[in-house]
Request: fold
Amino acid sequence: MIPISEKYVNPFTDFGFKKLFGEEPNKDLLIDFLNSLIPDQTIKNLTYHRVDRQGLTPDFRKPIFDLYCENEEGEKFIVEIQKVKQNYFKDRSLFYSTFPIQEQAVAGVTWDFKLKAVYFIGILDFVFDDKDKDKAIVTEVKLLDTKSNKVFYDKLTFIYLQIPNFNKTEMELETHFEKWLFVFRYLQKLQERPKVLQEKVFEKLFKIAEIAKFDYAKRMDYEEEINAFRDMKNSVDTALDDGIEIGKVKGSNKRALEIAKEMILENEPVDKIIKYTKLTKLQIENLIIELKSSK
Reply:
C-alpha cells in the first residue's frame, strides 16, 4: 500500500514521471522545464515519439527511453530519470544518443549528413562517483577541442542533473529553474504546494501529481510500481550488505536474474522487467522459457 503520508506522486518512478511529463495534455510542463534548463532554447511545441527504438538487427539491444520528443525545429530530446545508481549511466546515455542521430539518415537520395541537434537529459536521484569537490548539480557535456577548450561540435549535448546535490530550502529559491529542482527533490515529501511555487505551471503540476485524484486503475498501477521498486531496492541493499558488487556477480547479474524471475511470476510486462533489471530482452525470454518448462 502507498503510505498515507504520501500525498503526491514520486517523479522518479516511471509512472510518476510519465504522468507529469509524458502525456500530451501535460506537455506544457515538459516545455517549461526544458526551457528553464537550456537557456538558449525557446521551445514552443513538442512532439512525442515512441519510446521503444529498434536496433540495427533483430538481436541488437533495443533501448526504451523514458521520454523521446522533438521540438518545432526538429531537434531531438531524450529525457531519462534514474532512481537507482547505475555504474555505467554515462555509457548508457552515449549509447541512447546514437539512435536519434542514426534516425536522421536519409535513404535513397544523396545526403550531406547535416544533422539536427540531439539533447540527452538525465535527471538522477544519485550522484556520480567523480570525487567532484564542488558537488555540481548541473553538468553539461559537449564535444570539445582539448587544446583550445572550445566547443568543437554543438549539436550533441548531455545534461545531467544530480538532484541529491540540490539542498536549497523553499525560501532560498531564486530562479525558475531552481523551483524545478526543488520539485524533483521534494515533491513526494510535500503535503501542499509551497507558496513560492505560485506560477500556473506549478499549480497544474501539483493538481496532476495528487495521488488521491487518480482513478482506481491508475492508483493500482502506481502502487504496483512502487512495490516493485521497493522489492528491487531491498534486493540490491541485501546484495550490498552481503558484500556482493552489483554487476560483477559470478554467473552474470545473478541478483538481476532473480528479480526478473520474480517479476515474470507476477506477470509483469517484458519492457518493465528490462527497465528494472537492465537485462536484455533475449535473457528475459530465455528465463520465461525456463520457468515454463520447469512447471
